[in-house]
Design goal:
Radius of gyration: 25 Å
Number of helices: 4
Strand content: 35-45%
Number of strands: 71
Largest sheet: 16 strands, parallel
């Protein structure tokens, strides 16, 4: 589709909407989800809701929500539910799910103007799935996250539609005692909301938007003080701006498209760096360009701007000396990409071997048809499992798994809410089925021999493990060695981990238990839409491993196999209260696009040995901050480089407050080139100790206070060397890593995006 056709298509839609024609039929909606109800789901219709769009269902829905306990699932069968007062959940609780049939389950506001349709006051590890929430132009807020009773983390909104809210589709209340963090919006639609999602408090961190669509909003995403990652999302017709960004920590916008909005991105924060990658923007209407910048260092590459309203540059800089690293961007109809001339401090990176993956500003990512589990094999109802933490449920669960495998066709072996005692390894093989539970409170508890494995998976083909805690610390003390162990051969395999909780959160034991991938071949694909806990990846460098959202614990990469043709890529990644967030051994390679480290002892360990192939580590980060104990003053090393050979790229990234000296330690005799790119040192300074075999390049970095307060031993870096041709060519290789990660993300998670 040409850009001219894109704009004509949008204008036709806007005219139809203005004339009252409503949403056009050819635009995607959230999918219809044909669930087979589960045995532990509590149906609102069973509590008196009618769902005919006429009866007032408020009291019945509130009765269902009043019954919420740890791990509850509240089910909204297909129908239209009329709501006249705010319905809300009272916590604090973990692992709760509200689930409906997507576009076929509608909650419609029919109360007073300015009300809020739904809210909660403190839920963690919770999912909201498949609900269409319609404010009808009367309700102010659809979902009010009122985090007043607990810190809310890992809250997911999936296949949700937010329509016609006069203030916000989702609003995180800034007056709350706590905050909403590590939340996600996956395959969600926001239409005709003054603000799509608004989060304006400190600690509203790590919001991920993936596969979303925003239409006819005032502001689609409003971030003040928090931070976010927006990827694979489409914006159109925003009357103010698609993304209003004033984050406290680093943020990113990747593979997003926009047509007909007043402005795409308005970014202003003096301490938090930003990356724009592979975004296509067409026909913006405002006078201040498609992108306005005023703040910390920014990286922009592979972005395309077409059908401008004037001949002015699409990127406008409002801060003199704005650090800006650019590569392979294109501006139609303007002699320059960035203006006013001379205001930005530009670093231009040459073309790499790869290009951006987005092909059109009209490219959309919202899926109106998705795969979900079909026939349900219930471990308790059908096979006699107890789920009481006392009876041995091993045989019953294995029979449920075997039945789902034999049936195939997306069947699921389902473990309702409960704690399941396991005394022998459960085994998953075969093709085309699911194994899963109700969420965080469906738990596997190991009571077998010391050093055992709870789940063993070998050469799975289109198998998904979902919404299940396997060996997680919250389930109780266990003596197993591995929670989940996936192994492989040279046969094709594909495994998905979605809503899986293993050991590692807050434990500071990076090599213990967790999810272990070992010996995976070049035809193996592993997807992690959502995993919490330790990840250990051994001799799997030929596989394609894509981690979408992974939280807590540590990542350990190791193995002596020299065949390293695969991809190990991480998108949203969080590590807190860890010894180190990342260990890369054996000179392996990794690319991570949004890595947030907080309250950790240290940052990364990268190590190699003679004979290991050279590697490349490319990491962009939101924040790096350590908590230094008085009895452990040696902690707080950002990067410990132990004879790692090759190239290491870190940035954009924010080094935040503690410790005052950002320590980077290097020892070894093998050649290493370390790059710090678009990093911001917030009340910190560099303290680099490097052996003669290493080089250091800084490009586009800033600090509170002069950057030349850095301590670098030996003094091998000079500012004028940062723009040397060989250094810039090396940075192009880092951008190629991020491009390859983007290609894999689109191909594996959004393969049908038009």
């Amino acid at each position: 589709m040409t850009c001219r056709t894109e704009v004509a298509s949008l204008l036709a839609w806007l005219l139809a909407a203005a004339a009252g024609a409503g949403e056009p039929g050819d635009l995607p909606h959230v999918p219809a989800l044909a669930w087979e109800p589960r045995s532990d789901w509590v149906s609102v219709k069973g509590l008196g809701a009618v769902g005919d769009g006429v009866a007032d269902d408020t009291a019945a829905i509130q009765k269902a929500l009043d019954g919420v306990r740890e791990g509850s699932t509240i089910y909204f069968p297909a129908g239209t539910y009329r709501v006249t007062n705010t319905v809300s959940m009272k916590g604090p609780h973990c692992g709760v799910t509200l689930i409906g049939h997507g576009r076929d389950t509608r909650l419609v506001w029919d109360g007073a103007a300015g009300g809020a349709l739904m809210g909660d006051d403190g839920f963690a590890e919770t999912r909201f799935v498949g609900l269409t929430l319609d404010g009808r132009g009367k309700a102010a807020v659809d979902f009010l996250h009122h985090s007043d009773r607990r810190f809310e983390t890992e809250v997911r909104h999936i296949h949700m539609a937010f329509l016609g809210f006069t203030e916000a589709g989702v609003f995180a209340d800034p007056k709350d005692k706590f905050a909403l963090a590590e939340t996600s919006f996956e395959n969600c639609l926001f239409d005709a909301c003054r603000r799509g999602v608004s989060f304006t408090s400190f600690n509203d961190y790590n919001y991920t938007f993936d596969g979303c669509e925003f239409r006819r909003c005032g502001i689609a995403i409003e971030c003040k003080h928090g931070n976010f990652y927006a990827r694979n999302s489409h914006f159109e017709g925003s009357t103010d701006v698609d993304i209003l960004s004033a984050p406290e920590h680093g943020s990113s916008v990747r593979r997003c498209t926009s047509v007909g909005s007043r402005q795409f991105l308005r970014y202003a924060n003096p301490v938090s760096p930003m990356t724009l990658q592979d975004c296509h923007v067409a026909a913006w209407t405002g006078p201040d360009g498609a992108v306005s910048l005023s703040g910390a260092p920014v990286m922009i590459f592979d972005c395309v701007f077409t059908h401008p309203p004037d001949k002015e540059p699409p990127i406008r800089v409002h801060k003199a000396g704005q650090q800006l690293i650019v590569s392979e961007n294109h501006a139609e109809g303007s002699p320059a990409l960035v203006g006013p001339e001379g205001r930005a401090k530009l670093s231009v990176i040459p073309a790499g071997q790869r290009k951006g993956a987005i092909r059109s500003a009209q490219q959309r990512f919202l899926k109106d048809n998705v795969r979900i589990p079909a026939k349900v094999f219930d471990a308790r109802r059908d096979f006699g499992a107890k789920g009481d933490g006392q009876a041995d449920d091993t045989a019953a669960i294995q029979r449920a798994i075997d039945a789902a495998r034999a049936h195939g066709k997306a069947a699921i072996a389902y473990l309702p809410l409960g704690t399941y005692k396991i005394t022998d390894t459960l085994r998953i093989t075969g093709a085309d089925y699911y194994v899963g539970g109700s969420g965080f409170r469906s738990q596997l508890l190991w009571r077998g021999p010391d050093g055992g494995t709870i789940l063993a998976i070998h050469d799975p083909q289109d198998v998904t493990l979902e919404h299940l805690a396997v060996g997680n610390h919250d389930s109780g003390q266990m003596n197993n060695a591995i929670d989940i162990h996936q192994t492989g051969s040279d046969a094709p395999s594909r495994m998905t981990y979605d809503g899986v909780f293993v050991y590692g959160m807050y434990q500071k034991q990076p090599f213990r238990k967790g999810l272990r991938l070992e010996g995976l071949g070049e035809k193996a694909v592993v997807l992690m839409p959502h995993v919490q806990g330790n990840l250990r990846i051994v001799d799997s460098a030929r596989a394609t491993i894509l981690a979408g959202m992974t939280f807590e614990g540590s990542v350990v990469v190791e193995g002596k196999d020299a065949r390293r043709t695969g991809l190990l890529g991480f998108l949203t990644r969080l590590s807190t209260l860890t010894t180190h967030g990342l260990y890369v051994r054996g000179n392996h390679s990794i690319v991570m696009s949004d890595f947030y480290v907080e309250q950790a002892d240290n940052g990364f360990v990268l190590e190699g040995a003679p004979g290991d192939p050279e590697g490349r580590v490319t990491i962009q980060g939101a924040k790096t901050q350590f908590t230094i104990r008085k009895d452990a003053p040696a902690e707080g090393t950002a990067m410990d480089l132990r004879n790692y050979a090759g190239e290491v790229f870190l940035g954009h990234n924010q080094f935040y407050c503690e410790p005052e000296a950002v320590r980077i330690a290097h020892k070894g005799e093998r050649p290493l080139h370390l790059f710090l790119l678009a990093d911001f040192f917030y009340n910190t300074r560099l303290d680099v100790r490097m052996a003669p075999a290493a080089r250091l390049t800084l490009l586009g970095c800033e600090a509170v206070g002069p950057i030349d307060k850095a301590t670098i031993h030996p003094a091998r870096w000079r500012p004028e060397n940062s723009g040397a041709p060989d250094a810039l060519a090396a940075v192009a290789r880092a951008l190629d890593d991020l491009r390859r990660l983007g290609e894999a993300d689109l191909a594996l998670t959004h393969p049908s995006s038009p």
